[in-house]
Amino acid sequence: MSDKQSTARGFSRTAAHYTVYGMWNSGNCYKVRLALEQLQLSYAWVEINSAGGETRNPEFLAKNPNGKVPLLELPDGKYLSESNAITIYLAEGGRLWPTDRWQRAQALQWMFFEQYSHEPYIAVARFIMKYLPADHPRRQELPQLHARGYQALGVMEKHLQQHRFFSGAAYGVADISLFAYTHCAEEGGFDLSAYQAVRDWFERVRAQPGFIALSSQATRFQVHA
Ligand SMILES: N[C@@H](CCC(=O)N[C@@H](CS)C(=O)NCC(=O)O)C(=O)O
Fold first, then answer.
1. Are 166 and 204 in contact (CB under 8 A)?
2. What's the average pLDDT block by block, 10 residues per block, for the chain (225 residues)?
3. Are 67 and 60 in contact (CB under 8 A)?
4. Does domain 101-206 have CATH number 2.20.28.10?
5. Any bridge partners for residue 110, and if so which?
């Protein structure tokens, strides 16, 4: 057998250290991809078709009983779910995770904020507007999602008027976590023009070494020709 093994999705697994089960356009999955790229870790990507039921079949549920992506497979065969848990796991001991106890607590504070007060509104509005038909009944949820999403953006704006990042003093995984769905919030119908500090932070994030855009091809794995 060649040292290259093709996955069902056609991505080469040569020398991959980690395997990510994900959906390329999902912000939660982008967090993991961005962290892997910025930490210069090798990985294979297995694209999951949730609309086709692939997060709910017995094979996937055996890996993640919660039936969600992203899912990280470690080199020893263990599986880790939840985007923020994955990025912290990957970042521990490196430059994306603070060494100072207080700064680590601050980073965690923002990552819990992201999951409870931000992502359920900003990401869900994007999902409804980008992926569901224009006449879908879930459009009725948008005013409420926008109201709660703008509250979260206001909290971020206030923080960023005083601080450069969310991960303590330097860029780190809390920034990855909040960048994932904030930078594409306009796809969910949010107007970011009044959030100048947030938009300045976008540029600081984009300037970080190893940054890749949500839409871009990743570099740490090779696509099988
Ligand atoms: N809290 C989870 C959320 C994961 C999540 O909602 N994943 C979505 C994609 S963004 C998913 O798997 N959807 C497919 C499904 O539920 O079948 C995380 O941060 O990883």
1. no
2. 40 69 96 96 94 96 98 97 98 96 97 98 98 97 98 98 94 98 98 98 98 81 40
3. yes
4. no
5. none
| Diameter over CA atoms, the chain | 57
Q: Whose CA is nearest to atom 16 of ligand 1?
A: 68
Q: Which residue type, as a one-letter code, is found at position 219? A: T
- Counting Cα atoms < 13 Å in the Cβ hemisphere of 103 gives 17
Coil vs helix vs strand at 72: strand
- In the reported structure, the alpha carbon of residue 32 is separated from the centroid of ligand 1 by a whole-number distance in angstroms of 12
Measured from the Cβ of residue 52, the count of other Cβ atoms closer than 10 Å reads 9
Answer for the pair 114, 178: CB distance below 8 angstroms, yes or no: yes
Which residue is listed with tokens 């996955």? 7
> What pLDDT is attached to residue 55?
97
CA 221 to chain centre: 17
User: What single string gives the DSSP state of each residue in 22-59?
Assistant: E-TT-HHHHHHHHHHHHTT--EEEEE--TTTTTTSSHH
Question: 């999602």: which residue's tokens?
Answer: 145
Task: Provide the CA 72 distance to its chain's centre, in angstroms.
Answer: 12
pTM of the model: 0.92
Q: How far is the CA of 2 from the centre of ligand 1 (A)?
A: 34
- What are the DSSP calls for 134-159, one per residue? TT-GGGGGHHHHHHHHHHHHHHHHHH
68 C-alpha to center of ligand 1: Å? 4
